[in-house]
Amino acid sequence: MKGLGAIYLQQFSTTLASQLQYRAVLFIWLIGQVLEPLIYLVVWSAVSRSTGGNVGGFSAGEFSAYFILLMLINHSTFTWIMWEQEYRIRLGTFSFALLKPVHPIHSDIADNVSYKLITFPVMLLVALALSLAFHPEFHFAPWAVMAFFPALGLAFLVRFLLEWTLAMTAFWTTRVSAINQVYFVLLLFFSGQIAPLSLLPGPIQAVASILPFRWMISFPAELFLGRLTPSQALAGLAAQVAWLAGCLILMKIIWRAGLRVYSAVGA
Fold first, then answer.
1. Which of 60, 68, 148, 180 qualifies as a cystine partner to 224, CB 3.0-4.6 A?
2. Does the residue 10 lie in any domain?
3. pLDDT per residue as tens digits for the range 117-151
4. Tens digit of pLDDT for each residue in 46-56?
5. 225 contacts 66 by C-beta, under 8 angstroms
6. Domain range spanning residue 226?
7. CA atoms of 105 and 169, how far apart (whole Å)
8. In angstroms, rounded to a whole number, what is the distance separating the alpha carbons of residues 57 and 265?
9. Does a structural domain hold residue 267?
């Protein structure tokens, strides 16, 4: 563990220095992170005002709070590994990662976290600006705010492991763009990014509770905003732990199978 900690620290410093060299790219990525929730925020706030100030238990201010918070949660949990893994395998650069004495996932985790260390302060400033513009209404429950932080940590781990596992389909198919597109459409719909899940029909809510997407994004937001009871919060945390364990087991199985068929394609 001591050696792994040193590796993480070295990786953090390396990736921080690397990403600071590409400030324009960072800025473009941040624009993408902000624009999508901003569009939904504007749309649902307008719908709420046009219907007398309330839609499905959400006022315009509560929609603002939901989408601003969702923006921060999505930024905290998102990964890019599903897009990057295809290129690493197709161009042969993944072979170098396999030569290192530690699992490649550790480098990807450090890379992801270092990016967020750089950009999260900017996202907080954006959230503050949106709060001044859209006047969000937060209803805090102290126990829910405390439970939010472990829920957010679990959400990140579940999403990272799931997407890292799905990215390994590139061992067999090389081109995975179609798989990525299907995954991100499902994520967009069932994670509450388009609309709060409580506004969707009952059968869709039931499906969303079975799939992992809600537990990666929507659940921490619902928890922080005080829209869950303590029993619902415990059930959600249990679902996150279950999905985390399942993703970890599945990742190990696919990793071993993938290495047996891996061959670098090359440019």
1. 148
2. no
3. 888 888 899 999 999 999 999 888 899 999 999 99
4. 888 777 778 87
5. yes
6. 36-100+120-261
7. 15
8. 53
9. no
